[in-house]
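protien #1 (seq + structre)
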Amino acid sequence: MENLKSAIFAAADPAQVPGLSRFFKTGPGEYGFGDKFLGIKVPVTRSIVKRCWQGTSFQELEECIASEYHELRLAALLALVQIFAHAKKDPALQRRCIDFYLSHTDRINNWDLVDLSCYPLLGEWLLDKDRTLLYDFARNGKTIWEQRIGIVSTMTFVRHGQLDDTFAIADILLHHPHDLIQKAVGWLLREAGKRDKAALTAFLESRFRSMPRTALRYAIERFPEAERQAYLKG
């Protein structure tokens, strides 16, 4: 069975490193400052994980998630998603996946790492459980990435027609100063609005004048143009 870590290193493409470093904002003062890249785009990482995840141990996941290289951390998270998804008849293994995830949130330190892992893991796990954890992340997350996990994990609930937590956690984060949180809030509000536009408009009614414009633009992106402009102009 092909080794995940070795396969990722073998796919390194130095020519891609400058572009990925710019895209993920690794310059001084930017949110991804100091992150390092091997030069592997996400579809390539996905294809490697698809080949390798079944032979990947938790020890190897530990090595990958601890790496200085962004693509190795992503590969670890995508492999963890696969292990979790294929363990529906093994709740102990699923619990181990969740425990691994929660014990490594300090390594889930960019928006793609959050968005490609949190709702297939935490969202799925919490579908039939208490969701206080996500509220704690939103209110008390040590980083913007934990706070982003709090809102983006609700995507799974939205896809099951459960919208209350998305609106409630969006409310907690509504005036967050960082644009990556504002974008996530707006994105999840938009997704909730696809399921129930009336619920979204009711949420916005008392909030749209004061909420950050970034979040508002994302939330109303699919509204008819005249309606969008009415919101934006207040």
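ok now protien #2
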Amino acid sequence: MSKQMLDVRYQCLHPSCCANCREGVITVDEEAFVELCAFYPEEDVFRSPRGACRLGFNRAYKLVSVKRLDEGVNELHTEVVITAAQIRKRQNDPIALLMNEHQSILKLMARIEEQRARREVDALWASTREFENEIMLHSGLKEEEVLLPMLMSRLPLGEGLAVIIREEHREIVSILHAFRCALEDGDINDGVLGSVMMSLNSHIRKEDNEFFVLVDKHLTDDLRGELLEGMKKIEAGFVPVPPGERNIKTDEQKVAAAKRLQFHDDYLSIKEIANTGSCCGH
């Protein structure tokens, strides 16, 4: 089945945007556009896709209009984005809290991507540790220790959903660890960081637009209060891990690190081939 393509008219919100890409139209598939919209809480703002900005950065774009190439205005997509945005606007709501934390994590990832483009090893060392702390607090503690145990018995196929979410959390952390191992040797592995971004964007899109929407329908006021209290307690007791020193290793350790990264690259290549041969793309 072919992807539904969209024509998206935009205006760049960055004050120093050059005249050539301050406004215009980009063509993108619907699934990718939903992911770009998930970067910002505003209903009419989305993140520019890779290559759209002439300066090479990911900018905030204001949505002017969205049209299917063959059907006119894309009403279905608008409903999906508004649903996620409406939940995020709630006060003292545990699902809104998690969705808004997704926005903070995506903004941190955008900062890491800019540091990668500028080849700032030390800045990346600090930012990726900050990213690890955010993922541990958000995913490893608030979701896995508070949200999932409470919902496994209350959601249809709750245990299976919990397994999938935990696996995706571990995939993101594992790939990020590989990137930090390279940083420790002074190397910036673009492919590994790209894998982190791809996994993170896919995971957040599924949680915001599928899992959290499902969860929201099964929560009573009492359960919302219990979840919110548990998440606040977790956050109050969380102690972030500092970046530490970036160690330059011996030649022998560098060789071992290079072999480890090559193994990871081979794994990604095999995974890409497998996905290419799949009928559903998963």
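Residues 65 and 236 are 42 Å apart (CA to CA).
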